[in-house]
Structures are given as structure tokens and as C-alpha cells.
């Protein structure tokens, strides 16, 4: 629905457990696995208390075309990193030994694979293979069961409370805020914001402008995709001094097997001193209302995270502006950003027994 959130006085909150400008502006394709008949929610209706995991091989690659008029081509790829939700092993690459380096982003700590082609060939295909084990995440339940939570450093807190180019923490978004009674925890406030975004935004990609995570656009239109839902949530959370971060990667269909990944999926996490980083997937909740409680605090195993953050500076530094987000290969040729006419991503997955 396109309903603006009403002002509420809430005394008690119940929390359920349940590279032309295209690359720089973040207009990558969102994957139909999370949009159409393949919905992650169907994989989580049964055995809601049983933590599930999934082991698969991911081949991340692309074909670069029409390079003959360029001298130097520079390529950056996001590298999925191991954390509490996924274990990642790079098992091979077509690039060859000594042809690439892996760097760590200074701001968000993203792993970034970098290589150059000089002189540039007419066409070049590459791939990187990973074995990934991703587990279902239940942040609230894990904390209640005694798993330790990490605290945020002062630097991390500043980073995840700050504004980004399309995600302000003041002005128009604050008009959507519900009223808060005193004494609410970050967790309780975040649940109100989760509900607020779900009421205000409809999952709708019919209007040009979706997918950039432009919070002012989302406030005005009340529609968008996963990028738009979670950008608004992050804006509102940070305005309430709740650290929040953006995470992006690929979805997998709940059915096991093999196939091609056509686009991305993203979600958000907010920080609570008691529960640590708590995930939310509001666009999935909007498409699957019966799983709304689940997607506050939980994520299915049917995904892989590739990078964190917005306004991303790459390592080595790119010639173009900061990336809105980082999921597809980013390519520059002689200092010019190459878009979809030159860069065709080719990513596949295959479940392992």
C-alpha cells in the first residue's frame, strides 16, 4: 500500500522471531528468484525453528566486449567474504596465477578482486569459482540462546550512523516516522520502523527510478524494489541513532539444483546492544505477508552476500565516482566507465550434495 505511516503512541512492542552511469548509479538487475514464482518464503514456512544450511558452488564471471579501441581496461569484482552467516572458499579462477590481486576496501572492509588488461583484447571472458556454505540466520534467537554478540567500535558506530549520497538522515524521511514512547530499546524502535516502511512502500517496479535506493524518491512514490525498501529503513534507523548497514548479494531459488543468476537481492541490518546485528528483509516481507515476523530478525539460507555499504570507493581507486552499491563487475577502459554494452555478467550456481 502507499499509506503514509500514521503517528502512533506505542507503549508495548511485540517482536516476532520468526559502468556507464548504469554501474555508478546502481541500476543492476534484481533477480526474479525473489520477485516471481520462486519466493524465498516458501522455503521457510515449514520447520521454522530448525536452522537450515545450503552448500553450493558459485561461478561469478562476465564477458567484456568491444574493447579493441581501448588501451587499458581495469576490472573490479566483489569477493564474497566468510562471516557468521556464510563460509566462502575461492576454489579457482580463469584469470591465471599472478594476473589478479585481492584488496580490502578501506571504508567497509569489502574484499575486492582487481585485474588489468593491457593492451586490451577485442573480447575477454573470465570467471571466479567459490564453494559457499550459507546458513539460515536467526539473530534474535541466537542472542537469546546465549551466543555472544560483538560491540561496535566508535568508528563503526560513526560509519553506520552517517549519511550517504541517496540516504539522508534528516528532512523528508522524518515525516514518515511514528511517534515513540520513552524507554523503547533499539530493537523495539526498529520493529516500528520495519512496520512503517512496509506500510509506506509497495513492491512495484513499474515506475522509472526504482532500484537506486534514493530515499527521497521512495518517500514521494511509495514504491520500489529491495534497494528502495532497505534504503528507507536505513535512513529512518540512523535518524533514530540506530546503526544500520546495507548488504547486497545474490538470491538462490529455494529449490535445490543448478541455474543462472539473473540479478541481485539486498537487505539491511541494524545494531542492538543486546542482540548485535539484526537482519531485516522488508521487500520479501511485503511480498510474503505471512512471513513478516520471520523477516524481522531472520534470513533464509537461499542467498549469498557480496558486499556491504553505499558510496563505495574501490581498491585500487576507480577513476569514476563512488559506486552506489557493488554487486556486478565494475569496469573502466582508459578512465571511462563501461556499461552493459560492453559488460555482460555471467553468474551461475550449483548445489553440492
Can you walk through the features of this model?
The protein is α+β, with helices and mostly antiparallel strands. The protein folds into two domains: 52-134 and 311-351, Immunoglobulin-like (Sandwich); 138-307, C8orf32 fold. It has helices spanning 21-25, 139-144, 154-159, 186-200, 215-221, 226-239, 282-287; strands spanning 53-65, 73-79, 86-93, 101-104, 111-117, 123-135, 137-138, 202-203, 223-224, 244-251, 258-261, 265-272, 276-280, 298-299, 303-308, 330-333, 336-338, 343-351. β8 (202-203), α5 and β9 (223-224) form a beta-alpha-beta unit.
Span between termini = 42 Å
Percent helix: 10-25%
Mean pLDDT across all residues, rounded?
88
Strands of the widest sheet, in order across it, are: 3-6-1-18-11
Principal-axes geometry comes out as globular
Main CATH class of the largest domain: Alpha Beta
CATH architecture of the largest domain, by name, is Roll
> Using only CA atoms, what is the Rg?
20 Å
Total tally of structural domains? 2
- Low-pLDDT runs of 5+ residues are 1-27, 32-48
Total DSSP helices = 7
In total, the number of strands is: 18
Classify the beta-strand content into a percent band: 25-35%
Short descriptors:
353 residues, alpha+beta, Immunoglobulin-like, C8orf32 fold, five-stranded antiparallel β-sheet, 18 strands, 30% strand, globular, disordered N terminus
